[in-house]
């Protein structure tokens, strides 16, 4: 039996759909959710609903009963997420789970990382590996979805162009849906051989490449202007972005500028059995171009 956490989220729900598409019987799938009302559609499909927050160690323990494999979808609250992940790992170990899978992030060099969120993945990976559980780690690259919607501002980019403090930094974007499908494919298989997958696109792209792809797709001239961090932050503040968010964007953007997300691997293509969706096709789909 496979337990998928974050099952009411975007990635987790797509992983569950892949398992169903691969003929894993719904009664062999369990979904960990913290709000049962959000899981009605999963229950309807015959999926076993288990209720717990990552904070609630006893409830996690109950939720792991009869489970062979767990996919831990990383949480979002930086201030406590490492402890939350540790709770899930400890509960899995205590319940006799045979395989712990985790959605991490694909980064070039953990020693020079600036983004604290990414460091929580590093800490979690270390904890899982030290736990003695059999593990699979999926190091997902930055979702193309996040770039298209949050970094360049959605379809408005066709009018505004791209101004980011990311220099010539490249990212090997992949669609969230491709990451989810690949995770589902791996989980549906028998193997749990302490493996780390680098789930990236087949090519790394700069924001100049993103601008070129948008120009080709839209027929408009979209430009990329690299800006310095102060200019970027001042403009974000002017647009009403909260101060805390502005502060958090600096290490995130600097890591991209420094090439932290530029690793290219064939792991995603191998797990999908096809090439991942590339930048141009992905942007066309995400921005409806
Ligand atoms: N690689 C990337 O570019 C990238 C981008 C964004 C996020 N991420 C990471 O990837 C994960 C999955 O992405 P997503 O797009 O599926 O995010 P999402 O739609 O926000 O889903 C996150 C899921 O985690 C659950 N969750 C959060 N905190 C929890 C807690 N304390 N206890 C139990 N469940 C909890 C949420 O439950 P509720 O439905 O109850 O809220 C939700 O189901 C994110 O959580 C984040 O760590 C990666």
Structure at a glance:
The chain has 289 residues and is α/β, with parallel strands linked by helices. The chain is built from 13 helices and 9 strands. The strands form 2 sheets. A 7-stranded parallel β-sheet has the order 3-2-1-4-5-6-8, with helices on both faces. Strands 7-9 form a two-stranded parallel ribbon.
Structure characteristics:
binds NADP nicotinamide-adenine-dinucleotide phosphate; about 290 residues; two-stranded parallel ribbon; 7-stranded parallel β-sheet; Rossmann fold; alpha/beta
Description:
The protein has a domain at 2-140 and 175-200 and 264-276: Rossmann fold. The chain has 13 helices and nine strands. The chain has helices at 10-21, 40-44, 57-63, 81-94, 116-131, 144-151, 157-160, 176-188, 207-218, 229-238, 243-257, 267-272, 279-286; strands at residues 2-4, 29-33, 48-51, 69-72, 99-105, 135-140, 162-164, 195-199, 224-226. The strands form two sheets. The protein has a seven-stranded parallel beta sheet, sandwiched between helices. Strands 7-9 form a two-stranded parallel sheet. The radius of gyration is 19 Å and the shape is globular. The structure holds NADP nicotinamide-adenine-dinucleotide phosphate. NADP nicotinamide-adenine-dinucleotide phosphate binds at residues 6, 8-12, 34-35, 38, 53-55, 73-76, 84, 103, 105, 140, 142-143, 146, 176. NADP nicotinamide-adenine-dinucleotide phosphate (NAP) binds at residues 6, 8-12, 34-35, 38, 53-55, 73-76, 84, 103, 105, 140, 142-143, 146, 176.
């Amino acid at each position: 039996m496979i337990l998928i956490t974050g099952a009411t989220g975007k990635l987790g729900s797509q992983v569950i759909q892949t398992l169903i598409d691969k003929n894993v019987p719904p009664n062999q799938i369990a979904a960990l959710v913290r709000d049962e009302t959000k899981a009605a559609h999963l229950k309807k499909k015959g999926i076993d609903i288990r209720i717990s927050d990552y904070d609630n160690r006893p409830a996690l323990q109950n939720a792991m009963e009869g489970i062979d494999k767990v996919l831990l979808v990383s949480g979002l609250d930086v201030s406590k997420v490492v402890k939350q992940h540790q709770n899930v790992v400890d509960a899995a170990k205590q319940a006799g789970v045979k395989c712990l899978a985790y959605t991490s992030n694909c980064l070039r060099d953990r020693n020079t990382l600036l983004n604290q969120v990414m460091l929580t993945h590093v800490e979690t990976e270390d904890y899982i590996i030290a736990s003695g559980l059999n593990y699979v780690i999926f190091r997902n690259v930055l979702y193309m979805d996040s770039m298209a919607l949050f970094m360049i501002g959605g379809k408005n980019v066709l009018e505004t162009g791209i101004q980011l403090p990311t220099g010539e930094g490249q990212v090997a974007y992949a669609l969230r849906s491709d990451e989810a499908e690949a995770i589902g494919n791996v989980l549906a298989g028998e193997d749990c051989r302490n493996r780390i997958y680098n789930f990236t696109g087949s090519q790394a792209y700069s924001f100049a490449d993103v601008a070129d792809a948008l120009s080709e797709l839209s027929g408009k001239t979209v430009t990329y202007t690299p800006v310095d961090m102060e200019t970027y932050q001042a403009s974000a503040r002017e647009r009403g972005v909260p101060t805390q968010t502005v502060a958090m964007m600096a290490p995130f953007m600097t890591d991209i500028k420094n090439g932290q997300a530029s690793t290219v691997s064939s792991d995603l293509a191998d797990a999908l059995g096809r090439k991942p969706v590339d930048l141009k096709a992905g942007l066309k789909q995400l921005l409806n171009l």
